């Protein structure tokens, strides 16, 4: 087991907002943080003790990060697995490269679920061009065609209503491994965020209820308003996956709820957008637990104090002439997090607001009210 001392460096590949929030948790425990990112002004680079500004595949930069750090983690999935495997021969890497190789590839994810006996949407896949004709035999429409790799926030996928549309989409992605899934008319989307440490102990944050807009998470609510049967099954599935893949760190499993069934949608081997509300709503946040796990500390008992909801703040909001921060923050028990990104763009996550209340419904109303207040013209 690896155990870090205060003052030791945690190396983070990726300098986005997840890395930034990891760093805040690391600093509370006395650790230092180094980041590898091509952007010298990324959210994490702004607050890291050391920043290595280079492409992710730069061998010298990767070796510099490994030499400096006592443990390596990452805050996004599009990291080279061979690169992580190379680093892991010098320094511990959490979560492990094998887990990443599965979560990076939707085909691998689905086959892992099938191996574990966990339910998913019906699917077929083609890893080579010669296998493409088999996808045309998929007779369950509507369906979703997805690239096996590289999709997030709704990217890398297309809905098709019939075989003609399927042929058109296959022509659009001629050289990519693809998977086709039956469209799931789900009741609600949920996620389970959990952390597993080096002693194989697991702590979860219950179940989050999630709502998306144009493929991007819009609002998360905790605890999810679902039956106890669904809650127990989702947590059980997530824990089973975490143990099977020998997770160390924080991971998220996303699900569709269809009647009394829970279908696994996808994995994220890192802290997750739906878990941001744990910063205020739980004794230990998803970032706290991630840092504790990868540094060898025992996990905290993450009890939830009050129901909570989180709303993303996308760059589209900045299209307004001015944002009324005062009016939004005048709403009690709301908490603003901005990520330090200089350039707002449509669909870009610039920050989030979390609201606490006595019920999940009240928390959801409050966080939406706070976000809407941003676009109310401030008084002259």
What does this structure look like?
Helix content is 29%, strand content 26%. It has helices at 17-28, 59-68, 81-88, 97-103, 106-116, 132-135, 163-172, 228-244, 278-281, 286-295, 325-329, 360-373; strands at 9-13, 32-37, 50-53, 71-74, 123-126, 143-147, 157-160, 178-182, 188-196, 202-204, 208-213, 216-222, 249-258, 261-268, 308-314, 334-338, 349-356. Strands 9, 10, 11, 12, 13, 14, 15, 16 and 17 form a 9-stranded antiparallel β-sheet that branches. A 4-stranded parallel β-sheet has the order 3-2-1-4, sandwiched between helices. Strands 5-8-6-7 form a 4-stranded antiparallel β-sheet, sandwiched between helices. A hairpin with a 2-residue loop joins strand 11 and strand 12 (216-222). The longest helix has 17 residues, at 228-244. The protein is globular, with a radius of gyration of 21 Å.
Compact summary:
With 380 residues, this protein is an alpha+beta fold.
What is the CATH class of the largest domain? Alpha Beta
CATH homology-level superfamily of the largest domain: ATP-grasp fold, B domain
SSE series: EHEEHEHHHEHEEHEEEEEHEEHHEHEEH
Radius of gyration based on Cα positions:
21 Å
Please, what is the average pLDDT? 95
* Amino- and carboxy-terminal Cα gap: 60 Å
Secondary structure blueprint with pairings:
Elements: E1 9-13, H1 17-28, E2 32-37, E3 50-53, H2 59-68, E4 71-74, H3 81-88, H4 97-103, H5 106-116, E5 123-126, H6 132-135, E6 143-147, E7 157-160, H7 163-172, E8 178-182, E9 188-196, E10 202-204, E11 208-213, E12 216-222, H8 228-244, E13 249-258, E14 261-268, H9 278-281, H10 286-295, E15 308-314, H11 325-329, E16 334-338, E17 349-356, H12 360-373
Helix pairs in contact: 1-10, 3-4
